[in-house]
């Protein structure tokens, strides 16, 4: 009898153990589910078991397949909540999973590279923005970095957060400012799923099946089939990554104690004019730590005063030292401003020593040109522009990493596929910087990604809103070719895809930083597009878009759409940003005049003009806007071969 009872108990225990329900990590407490669609929910359980799921007062049931997989769809919900979601195997209450605090609203998937990943704590006025971030009906889920050679069914980690001052710091600034405005304008809960990775091209975000359909990506994708993660490679790369960031964040060989000292012998160092990006000084593709030093003479009046030093906008990770003492340690995704206080007890009349330890990574590193660098006591200012000294290789070499995230499809596999088919309202996308040298092919690559994602979500032509690349780099004095201009053109051409919208950012970038801090305006402009295109509000959501041109003697007249109540210029100045060319294809800066909501363009140097370009540069000087103050979208009237068309 004892054996029989023990067998029954053991069987019951085994049944309980095997009767486990699992939900993907995209589901969790405090999540937002998409309103006005049949809400998908899926997971795994015991093969052949019956699943009962309840959301609010609505219940759905399904039987798992032979592998234990199951999926249900709740009927449509209006915006609201909070609700409890419960899932259990029928008749086994011990298997029940409860998810609490769930809201029904609009969910947006925000993806792309570093300008979408750039955090709220790095944005303009970060302290103020974080302190005021109290939006309990805005929720977000940040997908952890992960890359895989095969499609994954679940995220590596999960966890929805409620938007408040404690949680908002690491959220995408663009997505946050978008969500904040849409929540205020539409009065519905907003969910953001953030899946981003800085420095990535578009190919890793696209599925293998889609990449194989194009001759542009087919060969590279097939070559990537030889990519295999084996234990030895993964361990070695993981250790290299640890060592990589250990060197970047922590000075080696006691350099932080030795090199910043005023009496350190830098007589063998190389002279360099600052501000300058180091790669422009001939270091090339060097990756590693570089030290900068400068001696400055301070007047007697500075003695006993706390000073302010402004470094403009240094690239990447850096530490600042004054007379041998560390003043700041700014790490990747760190400060949005680069002004620091020098304590009074470090200041001495006469000679003082400034030292900067700076990481040169992926072409960055240095004090960006076009920025003001100086030291001041509040009334007198001493410039730091001019000759500095620099030295590399004072610390161990940074190990090379495989950077698997650069391979085709690996980010789709691990950071997008596990999200499908979670119900969403649409997509937010900010990417393209890493594809600039291949801008011509981006005309095909970007629509491929949009079609790929829409097909897989099976919610029709979901809204796809994206940001056009902002102005960046040094400004050219003459009209010239530009990879970034061609990438922007490829983005504009993508508006031919249905239900797409583009936020132009040509006026809010920074010459010295690929990561401009004014993410508030980027999010606002995306929200304007959503308000008009998705939520059907009557508003001006885009800047002037080139429509047509016709020639009038030695002049060309340009017409636009999206002008609102008319064209003007920012700050009321003369129109800038136009260039004009004849059949010789040599462009000259043009005069431009607004006439009857059109722009007439001409140049005394071009008697027979055939083509006009506007804002066609890495960092153009341009100021045409519509009545809403939104900038005109860069364009060209010609179709001459560009520098990225091979």
TrEMBL record:
Keywords: Hydrolase. The keyword Hydrolase applies. Residues 106-222, 423-527 form the Sialate O-acetylesterase domain. It holds the Pfam family SASA. One of its GO terms (biological process) is carbohydrate metabolic process. One of its GO terms (molecular function) is sialate O-acetylesterase activity. It comes from the Bacteria. This is 9-O-acetylesterase. The lineage of its organism: Bacteria, Pseudomonadati, Bacteroidota, Bacteroidia, Marinilabiliales.
């Amino acid at each position: 009898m004892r054996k029989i009872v023990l067998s029954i108990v053991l069987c019951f225990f085994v049944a309980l153990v095997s009767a486990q329900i699992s939900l993907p990590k995209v589901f969790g407490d405090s999540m937002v589910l998409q309103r006005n669609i049949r809400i998908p929910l899926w997971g795994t359980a015991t093969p052949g078991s019956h699943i009962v799921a309840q959301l609010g007062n609505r219940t759905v049931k399904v039987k798992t397949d032979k592998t234990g997989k199951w999926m249900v769809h709740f009927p449509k919900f209006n915006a609201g909540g909070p609700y409890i979601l419960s899932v259990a195997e029928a008749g086994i209450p011990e298997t029940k999973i409860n998810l609490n605090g769930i809201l029904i609203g609009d969910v947006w998937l925000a993806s792309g590279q570093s300008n979408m990943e750039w955090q709220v704590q790095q944005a303009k006025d970060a302290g103020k923005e974080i302190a005021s971030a109290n939006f309990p009906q805005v929720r977000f889920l940040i997908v952890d970095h992960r890359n895989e050679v095969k499609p994954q069914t679940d995220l590596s980690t999960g966890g929805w957060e409620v938007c408040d001052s404690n949680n908002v710091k690491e959220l995408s600034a663009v997505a946050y400012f978008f969500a904040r405005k849409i929540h205020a304008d539409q009065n519905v809960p907003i969910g953001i799923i953030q899946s981003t990775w800085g420095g990535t091209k578009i190919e890793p975000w696209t599925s293998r099946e889609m990449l194989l359909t194009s001759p542009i990506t087919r060969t590279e994708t097939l070559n990537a089939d030889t990519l295999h993660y084996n234990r030895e490679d993964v361990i070695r790369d993981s250790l290299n990554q640890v060592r990589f960031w250990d060197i970047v964040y922590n000075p080696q060989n006691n350099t932080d104690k030795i090199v910043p000292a005023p009496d350190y012998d830098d007589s063998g160092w190389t002279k360099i004019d600052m501000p300058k990006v180091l790669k422009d000084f001939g270091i090339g593709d060097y990756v590693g730590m570089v030290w900068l030093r400068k001696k400055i003479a301070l007047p007697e009046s500075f003695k006993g005063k706390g000073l302010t030093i402004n470094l403009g906008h240094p690239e990447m990770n850096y530490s600042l030292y004054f007379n041998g003492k560390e003043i700041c340690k700014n790490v990747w995704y760190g400060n949005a401003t680069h002004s620091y206080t020098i304590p009074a007890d470090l200041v001495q009349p006469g000679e003082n020593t400034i030292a900067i330890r700076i990481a040169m990574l992926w072409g960055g590193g240095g004090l960006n040109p076009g920025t003001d660098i100086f030291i001041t006591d509040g009334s007198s200012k001493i410039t730091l522009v001019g000759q500095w000294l620099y030295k590399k290789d004072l610390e161990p070499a940074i190990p090379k990493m495989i950077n698997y995230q650069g391979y085709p499809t690996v980010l789709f596999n691990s950071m997008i596929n596990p999200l499908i088919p979670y119900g969403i309202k649409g997509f937010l996308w900010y990417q393209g910087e890493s594809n600039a040298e291949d801008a011509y092919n981006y005309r095909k690559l970007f629509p491929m990604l949009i079609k790929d994602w829409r097909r897989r979500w099976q919610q029709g032509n979901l809204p796809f809103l994206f940001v056009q690349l902002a102005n960046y780099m040094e400004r050219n004095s003459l009209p010239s070719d530009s990879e970034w201009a061609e990438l922007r053109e490829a983005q504009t051409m993508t508006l031919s895809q249905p239900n797409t919208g583009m936020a132009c950012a040509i006026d809010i970038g920074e010459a010295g930083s690929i990561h401009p801090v004014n993410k508030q305006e980027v999010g606002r402009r995306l929200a304007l597009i959503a308000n008009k295109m998705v939520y059907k509000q009557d508003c001006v959501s885009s800047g002037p878009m080139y429509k047509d041109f016709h020639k009038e003697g030695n002049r060309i007249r340009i017409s636009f759409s999206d002008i609102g109540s008319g064209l003007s210029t920012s700050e009321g100045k003369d129109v800038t940003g136009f260039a004009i060319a004849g059949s010789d294809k040599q462009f000259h800066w043009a005069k431009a005049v607004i006439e009857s909501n059109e722009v007439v363009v001409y140049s005394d140097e071009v008697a027979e003009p055939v083509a006009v370009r506007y804002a066609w540069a890495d960092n153009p000087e341009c100021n045409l806007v519509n009545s809403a103050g939104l900038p005109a979208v860069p364009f060209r009237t010609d179709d001459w071969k560009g520098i990225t068309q091979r």
